[in-house]
Amino acid sequence: NGASPVPGWSNDFRWQGYIPFDEWPKSFNPKKGFIVTANNKVADANYKYFISNDWAPSARAERIDELIQARISKKVPISITDIASMQADQVDLSAKKLITILSAAQIDGALEKRAQSLLLNWQGEMAAKSNAASLFNAWTRHIRVHLFEDELSGYWREQALHTILDAMVGGTTNDDILKALTERSLDWCDDVRTSKKESCNDVLALSLTDAVQELLKLDGPDIDAWCWECVHRTQYQHTPFSDVKLL
What pTM, to 2 d.p., does this model score? Predict the structure, then answer.
C-alpha cells in the first residue's frame, strides 16, 4: 500500500489488477440531495479494496455538509453567493473537537488560566481579530512539538533528515493531536529523550506556557488584544539571500 519500502525485485508486491468498475466507491442521487467531497476519505472502513492512505481530514467536508444542511433546513435556495461564502468559511470543525480537551486541561499560572479561558466559548472560527484563534494555533503548534518531536528526531549533523522530520511534526493534523491525546495505547505523551514520565495533561500545560510566552512576545502583553491576523503571516524566502546567515 505504499506505506513503507518493499523488495522491488519480488512479484509479491506488484499491483494485483484493477478494481472492477461496479465495485468502485460511488454515490448516486443520494436522499439528502447533494454530494460533498473535499479530498476526504470516500469509502468506509468496510470497503475491501485499498485506495490510499493519503486522505485529507474530514473536517472540511463535514463543514460544507453542515452549511448546505443549514440552508436546506431554512428552505432557502443555495445561491452563488452562498457557495462563495462557503469557500471563504473560517470555521474549523477539527479545532472544535480539540477545544473540549484543551479547555478542560488542569493548568497552573494566572496568565495561562486567563489564556485558556479564551477557548471556553470559542466555536473554532479563525477570524482575523480572534484572540482565541491566535491562542489555539500557537498552543496546538507547541503541542505538536511536545508530543511528536522527541519521537521524530534525527542526528544533529543530518540537516536534510531534520528538515523532513520537522515537516512531519508540523504536518500533523488536529485529528492526529486528538488521537494522540485520547488513545492511551499510543503513549505519545512520554518524553523518550529524558525517560521522564509525563501525562498528557503535562504536555498540554507545558505547551500552553510556551504558547503564552510566544504570544506575549509577538502580540503584546494584553491578552484581550491578541489577534490571529497579527501573528498569522506567510513569509516568502528570497533565493538565495534568505539562506545567507550573515545577511
Answer: 0.82
Contact indicator for 139, 230 with CB cutoff of 8 Å: no
CA-wise closest residue to 137 among 102, 89, 108, 166: 102
Q: What is the pLDDT of residues 133-183, one digit of tens each?
A: 999 999 999 999 988 877 666 555 566 666 777 777 878 899 999 998 988
Q: Specify whether the CB–CB gap between 94 and 176 falls below 8 A.
A: no
- pLDDT number for residue 157: 59
User: For the CA atoms of 40, 41, 44, 48, what is the dihedral angle to 10 degrees?
Assistant: 170
List the beta strands (DSSP E) in 33-148. Answer: none
Asked if 70 contacts 168 with a C-beta cutoff of 8 angstroms, the reply is: no
74 C-beta neighbours (distance < 10 Å), count: 8
- Report in angstroms the alpha-carbon separations of 172 from 36, 136, 147, 215: 24, 15, 10, 21
Going by the DSSP 8-state scheme, the letter that residue 38 receives in this structure is: S
Given a cut of 50, the residues of the chain with pLDDT beneath it are none
Check: CB of residue 231 under 8 Å from CB of residue 219: yes
Q: Alpha carbon of 229 to those of 67, 123, 126, 131: distances in Å? A: 24, 17, 9, 9
For 123, the grid coordinates are 466555536
Q: Where would I find the beta strands (DSSP E) of 92-213?
A: none
Q: Give the integer Cα–Cα distance in Å for 201 and 205.
A: 6
